[in-house]
Amino acid sequence: MSGTNMASGDIDPNWPPPAYEPSDDVDTTPPNPPSGPARSARGVWLVAAFLAVVAVVALVIVAVVVFSGKPRPGAGPSAAPATAPSNPPTTTSTAPAGPCGPDEATAVSAALAQLPADKKTGKAWNPTPEFSDYDPCADLSAVVVTVVDATRSSPDQALMFHRGAFVGTATAVAYPFTELEVPASTDDLVVLTYRSRQSCDACDDGTLTTVGFQWQGDHVQMLDPPRSRWTHRRDPPHPAEPSPTPTLNGA
């Protein structure tokens, strides 16, 4: 606009201004890529970043390996398997050789089936044991029985068993007050006590005689029989009355 004053209704012939046109003096040459120190700095940064990534990956791998090698909480070190000895020690079996017999009730029933009734009372034998150390696997065990409806002075009889098989009675004559000493008996030894010459049938005085019976190969042998000969009907067994070897079927 010129310095001449224009009326408000006049239009400036120079308006609008002409569109912008680049001057020939403007440098239109595109910039060249960076070179020199700037380019070198960028390359160094890229290399450093790559090395940092590699280092992080390496640390992760090392951490995984170390963690996997640690024992889990609560899990102890696994025990090394025991090495079996080349020559294991031999153990000696304590089980008796040979077969074992039936249970006690069956063995007693089979034994009493072979015995006649008591000669003195005429009564049958009661299968319920008074004393017993019956062992179906022992070389010698015994069961002491009395007669049916017995009294304190009724006769008793000791049934002898070898591995559960009935091998006879301790004596041919049945004696009252016969007891089995279980604590003194062993796998091949039976110890019986005979009480005689009491002042009364219910009395525990008199003479107590202990007699052992042992299994010897194929028979029962009376051990240390009484030295003197008793004549009283209640005296304990004597080697001559009856025979020291237990008898079968009351013979």
From TrEMBL:
Alphabetized InterPro entries for the sequence: LppP/LprE (IPR025971)
Cell membrane recorded as keyword: yes
Low complexity compositional bias, start-end: 72-102
Keywords on record: Cell membrane, Lipoprotein, Membrane, Palmitate, Signal, Transmembrane, Transmembrane helix
Region (Disordered): 1-39, 72-104, 222-251
Keyword Membrane among UniProt keywords: yes
Membrane-spanning parts: 44-67
Full protein name: LppP/LprE lipofamily protein
Organism of origin: Mycobacterium kansasii
